[in-house]
Design a protein that fits this description.
Blueprint lengths: L1 H14 L5 E6 L2 H16 L4 E6 L4 H4 L7 E5 L6 H5 L4 E5 L12 E4 L11 H12 L7 H10 L8 H9 L2 E7 L8 H6 L13 H10 L17 H15 L3 H4 E9 L2 E4 H13 L3 H8 L3 H28 L1 E3 L2 E5 L9 H9 L9 E8 L2 E8 L7 H12 L2 E4 L3 E7 L3 H18 L1
Parallel strand pairs: 1-2, 1-3, 3-4, 4-5, 10-11
Antiparallel strand pairs: 6-7, 7-8, 9-10, 11-12, 12-14, 13-14
């Protein structure tokens, strides 16, 4: 694949001589860091370019592209290869989502599914593309690492991902996969979304009770951070979380990455969450500016992140009270009670809860103007391909679908809300009967 990336980079340099470039990227952390890497790369080349960050790639957007532009899609595009192939433009797609059909001649596609399906983030691919253009772009590896963590591809690193980690300015430590590892532990536990802890996550009193029960007290009026806990304290905290979550040790313990950002080491998972939070609260321009080293954007992002965490806690509390549980599935129809930009995060957190058996399908729905957004997740690492599951439904009733086997999403008209639920329930219940 690296050879294909080098060929694509040379082709890109040739195609973009004296031409405007249009970047269209996804609004999550992986997409934002991909866009930042591309912006910094093009700026060094003194290229003319514009950037658009989107929640999802819709056919209407393709109609706004000018004929003379070279188009670069980042962390999206693989799901609309047919429509993109009909554009008169030269197109480059750097993406890691599944490919439903063969791409056309106008499209240069960089996607691991064309090769050996090696797990790598879009930001990782964009970084390798950038480094193929100029080896000095190695300094952009930190952004790629944040994007990789944002897409939760840091647990089992592929060969290419290991190369990115080696290029980055990063300190790797082993411990609880809670973030931020550098802030006081009581706040880390209260706002934890990487590990959902019943009666602790989102519950400040529950946090204090847990810490008191295991003997972790304030020192000089403040709690230690996660990375400051001694071996005994860490062992007690891990045991307490294992008991409360019924998780396996390997699910909550692993490497965390302290990456160089604004000239100091910061927890890559918290940076990823902050970038994601800005986009989820409709401030993707702040996310991008943050990744482009704006100190002003950093201050704004921290304020937005604090607001986002409150939104998320409220959303989790609503989900806990309003989800519908069946044999092997959970359906949460939040309608307008949870923002469509947060519903996917809620689904992910529920999927990480050990309250549900491995293989349980989580379907979380939320209104998005005149459409409904569905985020599907699988509990654990084994179970049905949720992208294929959603596609089987949207093929019948209409809509757009994309994603991965364990994390996918779809959109469809709000008037088909009940039709989707009926088809999903029928499909899920038939699967139970088969088993």
């Amino acid at each position: 694949m690296k050879k294909a990336i080098e060929t694509a980079a040379n082709n890109f340099l040739e195609k973009t001589k004296d031409r405007n470039i249009r970047i269209i990227s996804h609004f999550d952390t992986d997409g934002i860091t991909s866009a930042a890497i591309m912006c910094k790369t093009l700026k060094k080349l003194d290229k003319r370019f514009s950037v658009k960050i989107v929640k999802q790639l819709e056919r209407e957007l393709l109609q706004t592209i000018k004929k003379e532009e070279v188009v670069v899609f980042l962390d999206l595009g693989s799901g609309l290869l047919d429509e993109i192939g009909n554009l008169p433009n030269d197109v480059f797609i750097i993406d890691h989502h599944e490919i439903p059909i063969q791409h056309k001649e106008n499209t240069t596609l960089i996607n691991p599914h064309l090769y050996n399906n090696e797990e790598i983030s879009a930001s990782g691919l964009t970084y390798l593309f950038s480094k193929a253009i100029n080896p000095e772009n190695k300094e952009l590896a930190n952004l790629a690492l944040i994007g990789m963590v944002g897409d939760m591809l840091d647990r089992e690193l592929s060969l290419l991902s290991n190369e990115i980690v080696a290029d980055a300015e990063v300190v790797i430590k082993k411990g609880l996969l809670l973030y931020p590892a550098t802030r006081p532990i009581h706040k880390t536990l209260e706002f934890s979304s990487s590990i959902y802890i019943p009666e602790v996550t989102g519950n400040s009193l529950g946090v204090i009770n847990l810490l008191r029960d295991i003997g972790i007290e304030k020192e000089n009026g403040v709690y230690k951070s996660l990375i400051e806990l001694n071996e005994e304290e860490m062992s007690k905290l891990i045991t307490a979380i294992l008991i409360r979550t019924n998780a396996k040790a390997e699910e909550i313990i692993g490497n965390f990455y302290l990456v160089k950002f604004f000239n100091k080491l910061e927890d890559a998972r918290e940076l990823s969450a902050m970038i994601n939070a800005c986009s989820r609260l409709d401030c993707s321009s702040i996310s991008l500016a943050l990744c482009l080293d704006s100190k002003k954007a950093r201050k704004t992002a921290e304020t937005i992140y604090a607001e986002y965490k409150q939104h998320l806690i409220s959303a989790l509390q609503y989900a806990e009270q309003n989800k519908v549980a069946g044999k092997g599935y959970i359906i949460l129809n939040a309608q307008d009670k949870i923002k469509d930009t947060i519903i996917g995060t809620v689904a992910s957190i529920l999927s990480m809860s050990r309250k549900y058996e491995e293989g349980t399908i989580i379907l979380a729905m939320s209104y998005n103007e005149d459409k409904i957004k569905v985020s599907a997740r699988i509990v654990g690492r084994n179970g049905r391909n949720v992208r294929e599951f959603l596609k089987s439904i949207t093929d019948k009733m209409g809509g757009e679908c994309g994603g991965h086997p364990m994390a996918a999403g779809c959109f469809f008209s709000r008037e088909k809300e009940q039709e989707f639920i009926d088809l999903a329930m029928k499909n899920l219940e038939l699967e139970v009967i088969k088993i």
